[in-house]
Amino acid sequence: MSTTKSSAPAHIAGGSLTFMGALRSEWIKFRSLRSTQLLLAFTFVAVVGVAAFAAWVRGMFVEGMMALGGAAGPTGPDTPPTGQTTMTMDQAIASANEQGLNVYGTPIAGLQLGILVLGALAVIFMASEFGTGMIRSTMTAVPKRLPVFFAKAIVLAVVSYVLTLAAAIVSFFVSMPLLNIYGIKLSLGMDGVLSSILLGGVYVAGVAVIGLSLGTLIRSAAGGVVVLVALFFLLEIATSLLSLIPGDFWKYVGQYVPSVAGGRMLEIGDKAAFISPLSGGLIFLAWIVVITVPAAISLKTRDI
Fold first, then answer.
1. 102 phi and psi, to 5 degrees?
2. Considering only CA atoms, which of 129, 120, 154, 146 is closest in space to residue 293?
3. Mind listing the pLDDT tens digit for each residue in 49-96?
4. Number of H helices, E strands in the chain
5. Which residues span the domain enclosing 250?
6. How far apart, in whole angstroms, are the C-alpha atoms of residue 105 and residue 166?
7. 138 in a structural domain
């Protein structure tokens, strides 16, 4: 007498999908479109390309600073006074960092592009179902609704993290020889390099979850993408203008926007007048919660 083994059913009594069934369904939806596959491939290549270009630019900058010395720009505690004819490598790198060119952050230089593309893709992943009416079929299969939201969030977060991590690792190995041309040594053992590569994926995954939440709340792909761009690109510019208002409070408001807090999470060590990396990570997490919770409630309670 023989017995046959069958895999666990994807449905429960009553015909609704289990959470694992919903997760498989959302994964199939995500990967089945050729346009999504091409977009992810383009994002990977573009992020690596931006990092390679950044390595070349930063190497050129450091080389120029070493040649021009203190006459090349503002001085700081690690830079020589104006008039000194040359800089050491460490002084030139410190000067570049003071002017916003983080030499050792080159592997994640293309992160902003990943945020834009994957965040927009996350918005569309949910909003397109509302636009086409497919959401009704989805919710018929999963009447509780929230498993669909969390399944989509898991798919997007995992894909975003893996893609960003892979792109950052490749960017690191591409940047090494480019920076070495200018005498700059880059290694995973340097303070902050490995952690920024690992946390960069966390940052982009968080943006993807926010994008999914915006698509759920607004139910419009165009509207959700506009809000996402405003939140991660325009809000930082707007809050920087608030520093012109007298008072210390307005001077530091810009550090609490999601793009700045998330970016600070990727850095190592405290900086004067800046939130700490840990605080940046917690603030970014708070932004995720503040946007995701209303989205989940909206999906559960609003008509579709």
1. -75, 100
2. 146
3. 999 999 999 888 888 888 876 555 554 545 555 455 577 877 887 777
4. 12, 0
5. 19-301
6. 16
7. yes
